[in-house]
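tokens incoming
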């Protein structure tokens, strides 16, 4: 039974990722019907409305009035969404310095160089 739950969770996670991809690609607010049509997975209207509502309640999407309901758009792009998750994870850890140390030690050389460059840019310095 545990495997079944993991499969359902993975499918839901993939569905959410697909919904976000459709919204990012559109570049405009979309209704549940429009997102459902773009995905073309044959989902029930209520399923799509629930997914969009939950993403709105989590702060991932914003919504605007449209016809008899709402149209939804992402609050951030994909990179911003990942950065937010990383920040929340770091903020939830009491040993932030240890987490950062382990994170940095796991970076590839290229990623480490990129991080150094970005930190210098953020400080207004140069290499």
């Amino acid at each position: 039974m545990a495997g079944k739950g993991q499969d359902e969770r993975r499918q839901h996670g993939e569905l959410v990722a697909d919904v976000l991809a459709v919204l990012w690609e559109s570049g405009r607010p979309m209704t549940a019907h429009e997102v459902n049509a773009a995905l073309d997975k044959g989902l029930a209207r209520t399923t799509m409305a629930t997914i969009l509502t939950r993403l709105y309640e989590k702060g991932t999407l914003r919504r605007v009035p449209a016809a008899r309901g709402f149209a939804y758009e992402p609050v951030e792009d994909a990179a911003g969404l990942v950065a937010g998750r990383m920040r929340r994870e770091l903020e939830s850890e009491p040993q932030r310095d240890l987490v950062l140390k382990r994170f940095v030690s796991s970076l590839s050389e290229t990623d480490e160089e990129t991080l150094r460059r970005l930190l210098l840019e953020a400080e207004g310095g140069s290499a």
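note: The longest helix spans residues 2-26.
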